[in-house]
Amino acid sequence: MTAAIELIGITKRFPGVIANDNVNLTVQRGEIHAICGENGAGKSTLMKMLYGMQSPDEGRMLIDGEEVRLSSPSDAIERGIGMVHQHFMLADQLTVLENVILGSEPTKGMGRIDFKAARSHFAEVGESYGLTIDPDDLVETLEVGERQRVEIIKVLFRGAQILILDEPTAVLVPQEVEELFRNMRDLKENGATILFIDHKLQEVLEIADSITVLRQGKTIATVDPKDVTAGDLAELMVGSELPTPETTDSTVTDEVALFVDGVTVLDDDDRPVVDDVSLSIRRGEIVGIAGVEGNGQHELVSAIIGTMDPKAGTVSLNGDDIAHWSVRERREAGVAYVPQDRHVEGLLLNAPLWENAALGHQTEAPYSKGIWIDRPGSRGKTETIRKSYDVRTPNVDVSAHALSGGNQQKLILGREITSDPKLLIASHPTRGIDVGAQAAVWDHLRRARADGLATLLISADRDELIGLSDTIVVMFHGKLVATLDPADVTPRVLGAYMTGAVLDDKAAS
Amino acid sequence: MNDSLMKRLVLGAGAPVAAVAFAVGLSSIVLLLSGSNPFSAYGDMIENASRLETFVDILNEATPLYISAVAAAIGFRMNLFNIGVEGQYLLAAFFAAAAGGYFAGLPPVLHVSLILIVAMFVGAFWAGLAGALKVTRGINEVISTIMLNFIAVGGIIAWLIREWADDTGATNSGTTPIDESGQMPSLNGIVEIFTREISKGRELTSVLLIAIIVGVAYHLFINRTRVGFDFRASGFNPLAARAGGVPPKRMVMYAMLISGACAGLVGMAEVLTERYKYDQSFIQGLGFNGIAVALLGRNNPAGIAIGALLFGFLNQSSGILQITGSATPEIVEIMKGIIVLSAVIAYEAVSRIKERDEAKSAAEATERQAPAEPEEVLA
Fold it and tell me: Hey, are the CB atoms on B226 and A401 less than 8 Å from each other?
């Protein structure tokens, strides 16, 4: 049987960089093939070449045994290759069906859109691949996972047999990931070939039939998930022993830095999204909040940093009630914040790095003097952060969007920890960054803890929570439902708490 | 290193040069289609502009346009579309002229200051209304400022100009003319030190100096002050700015107030150095033209200056084209439109090239600084 995709000796150079260096890859028809690698390992470049967005400098590309030269995405689509990008490209105001046909509308005379034909083809596609979604729903009403399904249907609608999924799980919550995996298996069963990029190793092991690891532009190995562990994979990716998020001795003091008492936050419909939450964090302590995203963690964090007003309760920092202070007052008082989504609350993507370093601290030295921004001071400080937090960038004047996710995160972490905070709120600090940067982030959190910083860690990564936290609290439907000692909880048990399974058991018994 | 400096310079100059070249090319086609000879039309325009008197005209025209564009740009930097500069400057000019005419016999410096302060205050107040509506009621500033334009011009001014008219019988009724103590001198004396005498009764407005101060203040404020940083941060990413301690509502109010105060100065060239009153033929449309100039100048103080001068030059050219007959004067309006559009496109193209370049150099840095096997990566 000929392979669906065969890449032989693919090389792609950019000025000064070899993005792909003699890459060989064989993807069998009807398999789910994962591409793993750190950021900058060349995964995206490889996928872009397969989708015709870039062309290789050297090497041969065979699709179904036939040598091809793809010079645009439409060439790729013609060959039955479709790509689902990490960031969705959907029109919110249109229905699912309209989005799916957008750009390849079936027409009947005079350029009118043949919605009837579109609808029946849509139904066919959905049926043959086991994907269900209402074609008449407005896209803006859909959940993230459903939007992704629309993107996948869009690609299938155009006749794709080979799907490229670029980090499909990065934007999903755990339940949605399961749903996606179910869909992927259905797709496979119905004859589709799936190539997907991911760096969450557990997921890769769970879903892939075959895994290819890229490192620094080269194919390191293609392995069978049955033969490897997550540790093996990570080692292949980084090329060295994998760091773990383990903290050492306890550095917890008995000075309470943050004390949250009975905080309740209401949503737009006056329902409590944070319901009577109390917790305290001492200096030198990391308190981890475990929970599936959307259980009120973000709202709790917002109430602590001041972007949301709590309906009831007090928030005190070193004894001062800060519940009604402005965000700026709180930040000046020493509340540091690593937001859950870098691009939403963390960075000014079009501004230079040194301005990004100043963000949140622009009223303090060395970023400003009196009413003026201290440009040399800001640049110098950013330079320091760049060095000590290993932010890889040509200089501090490039825009933040030029940096990879891991480097952006290191910049944010550096800016927050070096501001001499009293409390650090770290929301999903290692989400969407590669293994190397992940280890660096854990390292910095641990060091800050040893220096006596009180840290609130919000995460959905169970290993991270167990490895870093001194105390874990579980948040479920806006409430703190359990307090656990990371020393005697396993990821499995923690997962059960996070999904509410343990609570149901308790209620039943 | 030298290479990258060269590249930056080429990219920096590339956008405006490409925009102008494209605009000239397209305008030439339009001229040819309308049956004119582009070379003789351009020749006439340049020859006209090289005369000292025309140059004074261009500066006089560019001065209020510049202030108007800065007023719009202040809002744009925060993603606020203050479409109301038009109403703000007219209302401000009206009240300032009325106050200037009413308080006769003040000492000169005080008299002029009073007029300027009233103008800035009224402009800020009128823009502040739109700001307050946005902050308290969430009303989009585009809608509210357009509505406020109508209320200012068609309502308040139309009503009060009759009430307060100096001579109600006159066909062109207006506010009481301002005494000499409230008039600003022309800059002819200073210019003539360097050149010949300016003839044909042309007078260079001293509000030009105010425009320069506005430009410098705008630059310092937006690029060098903390509040300016808060402004830009809100414009770049309001959520990140808020998490960084920038109060979003207060920023909207500040932006509208400052933009409005600046808009208040737009009509001052007319009030203080030209007409000395507000009457029914007071110059209109500067607010809307200012938006185009701000767009052309990319909200950058120096860029706006070039844009304002270019618009001034084109406006002056329409007269000469009519006189020499080498082209229809309306061609000038078409050229303005073409220039703004090509500038927008050229800047977008250049910023994409820059973005790609930066991403590439950042990726290189990642590779270069990567600890393992660097010699294999960089063959």
Answer: no
